[in-house]
Write a structure and sequence with these properties.
The protein has 226 residues and is of the alpha+beta class. It has 6 helices and 9 strands. A 5-stranded antiparallel β-sheet has the order 2-6-5-4-7. Strands 3-1-8-9 form a 4-stranded antiparallel β-sheet, with helices on one face.
Length: 226
């Protein structure tokens, strides 16, 4: 199986699992007692923060309208939409800790990623039980560059930080941005139906250069390191 087919299969499998779960449970389940991530601490990540096309902007507006008055729904702002290339560590840094970033990581980023463009196309909705993602397919060069980057960081002094962040495959198979998080086990019917109604829609593409940042999970407090 080629790498593009592997990504497509991962998306299809995730959507199928989510829809099966929704069929078993019509309610939202238990409300989340703690936030998805720490609201103020920062983590290291390599990502793109691209300009958004009109389709994506309209999609965000639709989600905001659909969830108006629902305190459990967190819709990302258009200014915060980003696509993670490789998450390096967990949220443990304050803004004053930028000087503590590993020299190894800075060197690896300069060698592998600095000023490199990433193009993600074929963007589509993808649902997890409590989240709506916008997921697509990278250009081939970006795909293999990320494989090389991962190998380098796992062989460096930041290995343990990377392992602490990732529970599954490193790097993760998805190429995505999180549009909405729902603070319960499952999304309500209206959001489920929205995904189903728009699952075949094509939201185009994004293109931007890679950056190394310290940021919170909503990309509201972001320090650009490179």
């Amino acid at each position: 199986m080629g790498w593009r087919q592997e990504i497509q299969q991962a998306y299809d499998n995730a959507q199928s699992r989510t829809e099966a779960l929704w069929q078993k449970s019509a309610d939202i389940g238990v409300r989340r007692a703690t936030p998805f991530f720490h609201p103020t601490l920062l983590c290291q990540t390599i990502a793109i923060k691209p300009p958004l096309n009109s389709k994506i902007l309209a999609l965000l507006a639709q989600l905001r309208q659909l969830t108006e008055g629902d305190s459990l729904a967190e819709v990302m702002s258009s200014e915060a939409i980003h696509f993670t290339y490789l998450a390096i560590g967990t949220q443990k840094y304050g803004p004053e800790k930028a000087q503590d970033i590993s020299p190894d990581l800075l060197t690896i980023f300069e060698q592998c990623c600095a000023d490199q463009p990433v193009h993600i196309s074929g963007l589509r909705l993808l649902a997890l039980a409590d989240q709506i993602l916008l997921a697509g397919f990278p250009d081939e060069h970006s795909y293999w560059r990320r494989q090389d980057l991962t190998a380098r960081v796992l062989g460096s002094s930041v290995r343990e930080e990377v392992l602490a962040r990732h529970k599954g495959a490193i790097p993760q198979v998805f190429w995505h941005s999180t549009l909405l998080r729902y603070n319960a086990e499952r999304m309500p019917t209206a959001l489920r139906q929205f995904v189903i109604d728009h699952i075949a829609d094509d939201y185009g593409e994004v293109l931007s250069t890679l950056r190394l940042v310290l940021t919170d999970y909503r990309w509201e407090r972001t320090l650009y390191l490179r």
